[in-house]
Amino acid sequence: METRDATKYKEYCRCRNKVRSITRSIQKSYEKRIALNTQTESKNFWRYANSKLKCKSNIPDLYLSSDNLYVTDTDEQKVEVLSNFFASVYTDISDDVLLVLEPRRLSYKMEQIKINTELVEKLLYDLKPSKSAGPDNIHPTCIKRACISIGYTSSTDI
Questions:
Q1: What angle do CA 149, 155, 158 make, to 5 degrees?
Q2: What's the CA gap between 84 and 69, in Å, rounded?
Q3: CA 46, CA 87: separation in Å to the nearest integer?
Q4: pLDDT tens digits, the chain, 158 residues: what are they?
Q5: Residue 151 and residue 132: Cα distance in Å, rounded?
Q6: For residue 12, what are the contacts with CB-CB under 8 A and spacing of at least 6?
Q7: How far apart are CA 67 and CA 60, in angstroms?
Q8: pTM of the model
Q9: In whole angstroms, what is the distance from residue 90 CA to residue 92 CA?
Q10: DSSP 3-state assignment of 110?
């Protein structure tokens, strides 16, 4: 707003609420009119009802072949086109043939892991309590509150 005056803001709120009230009453009268005329004008009712759906259930026409000359006419043809497509993409792998992995030698040796209590305590203390629980289902708030005792008991120098 152009000003932070409280009286102007209250006036704005009154106008906003009045406009919202008017639009709600217009919407209600429109819906009532559609409901009363459902027997004679069912097309209007179904158009309004379908406009309120969150998802559309229509599948558009599909091409029957890769040359894009022919288009599906019926739902059965659409099912057939989609079935052929997914059958060509997803194939069954037989249990008879197994992938053989050749053994490999690693050319490097893993270093010694060093974990000390100060590092564990710092990492536990730096947990964000606003985050959700991890795969262990322990909430970070619980860990943070007990970080000192967990830090000294969960690890020793390895």
A1: 155
A2: 18
A3: 36
A4: 567 788 999 999 999 999 999 999 999 999 999 999 988 888 989 899 888 887 766 788 888 877 778 888 888 888 888 888 888 777 666 667 777 778 887 777 778 888 887 787 788 778 888 888 888 888 888 877 777 565 455 444 44
A5: 21
A6: 1
A7: 18
A8: 0.34
A9: 7
A10: coil
